[in-house]
Design a protein that fits this description.
Shape: globular
Strand order of the largest sheet: 2-3-1-4-5-6
Helix content: 25-40%
Distance between the termini: 32 Å
Number of strands: 14
Number of helices: 13
């Protein structure tokens, strides 16, 4: 789906996942909830195969991504693949809605406990309420309430019952502090001069800026900062015309060394990747993980984990530049594997280090899921910007949000 300049990127939208058994009414519910025909509705088990992701604005929640998933009781070989996709959707979910529709709720409760363990807010709803007799309806609501300990929202996609109340409940269930994270943290404030050094090389889309640059620039404008944007070759000329040094210089990690070498002494320096390490991930963990770089050998194995699935480019930072820097230091026999998109190995133990990209395309929930997996398997993890700053010996001079 193309994203226009006035749309909120998917990675910054609230991800609401809809979960339930096959034919529990998930697709009908999501269409009624959104007021659009997002998903195909049919009385055939397994109508929803891959999860359907729909970006939209929902009052009073704001920009959201609704995720319609396959039934978690799907059967057969294809059913198992569909459940894998549902599990992936669960890893991205920041607010979970579980549809209950009968007294037997073993599988619903399995997923309920999964989300509670992940500190993901859950709202149980009784779906298809128009099909129940009043006594049966009240019995099921009370049973679900007692089993989950949560308030139950009765909903009918056919009549629209409960849709407005559910939206209000979702707004009250928003994760604490959601939407308050800042890319630049407290590094700068209003009226500070910030210089963005942005190479417009082969990796920059023609006629456009890459997403981290756009998001950072927008935040700086919202903070009422004074912003100056230059390409690397105009960096020195730009510094000369300024009457005072920038409070902060934000650059692309691949030109860290050059920008640091020529920066004014009073100016702080960071990179877009370092900022996103904190914004989307766990910065202290990444910095600790960077220390593992010094323990690598020619026999080590490193995993590069990209989030987007762009076509490989000449001098690609994750596929070419970082592997080249590592092999130059530790030897050509050092093995570097690369995964992209949502591909991420279950078993991380073969690796001595994981290097994650800035993750501008994923929401923080999914990035933290990856970090949690690395922590549990005791594999050091860092990101592109921290890696390059460490390898070039300037990490201790980089300003952290």
């Amino acid at each position: 789906m193309a994203v226009t300049l006035n749309e909120t990127p998917s990675g910054n939208r609230l991800h609401i996942g809809i979960f339930g058994k096959t034919n529990s009414g998930k697709s009908s519910f999501i269409n009624a909830f959104s007021g659009q025909k997002v998903s195909i509705v049919a009385d055939v088990a397994g109508t929803t195969t891959d999860p359907v992701y729909k970006a939209m604005e929902i009052y009073p929640l704001g920009p959201c991504v609704l995720i319609d998933t396959a039934g978690f009781d799907d059967k057969g070989e294809l059913g198992a693949l569909r459940i894998e996709k549902t599990e992936l959707a669960a890893q991205k979910t920041e607010l979970a809605i579980i549809l209950f529709c009968e007294e037997e709720m073993k599988q619903e409760m399995k997923w309920y406990h999964y989300f509670k363990e992940k500190n993901t807010p859950v709202i149980p709803i009784l779906s298809k309420t128009d099909l129940y007799m009043p006594e049966q309806r009240e019995h099921l609501i009370e049973l679900i309430r007692k089993t989950t300990g949560e308030n139950v929202c009765p909903v009918s996609a056919a009549t629209g019952e409960g849709i407005r109340e559910l939206k209000e409940l979702l707004a009250r269930k928003l994760p604490e502090g959601y939407g308050n994270r800042m890319i630049t943290g407290d590094l700068i404030s209003a009226d500070d001069l910030v210089m963005l050094v942005m190479p417009q090389d082969i990796q920059a889309p023609k006629g456009r800026l890459i997403l981290p640059q756009v998001q950072t620039l927008r935040e700086l404008l919202d903070k009422k900062c004074l912003v100056m944007s230059v390409t690397t070759d105009q960096y020195l000329a730009a510094l000369k015309v300024l009457s005072k040094p920038p409070k902060l210089i934000i650059t692309d990690s691949q030109v860290f060394s050059y920008v640091y070498e020529h920066k004014p002494q009073k100016s702080m320096l960071t990179s877009f990747s370092v900022l996103f390490a904190a914004y989307k991930g766990d910065l202290p963990y990444y910095i600790e993980g960077a220390k593992a770089i010094d323990s690598l050998t020619a026999d080590s194995r490193v995993l590069i984990a990209e989030c987007c699935t762009h076509a490989p480019l000449k001098e690609d930072i994750g596929r070419v530049k970082i592997p080249r820097m590592l092999k130059k230091r530790f030897g050509e026999t050092l093995k570097v594997d690369l995964v992209s998109g949502t591909d991420y190995p279950e078993d991380l133990t073969p690796y001595d280090l994981i290097i994650q990209c800035g993750a501008c395309m994923f929401n923080r929930k999914y990035v933290m899921y990856r970090i949690d997996r690395a922590k549990k398997q005791q594999i050091p993890m860092t990101n592109y910007g921290i890696t390059i700053a460490h390898l070039t010996g300037i990490l201790e001079h980089v300003s952290l949000p």
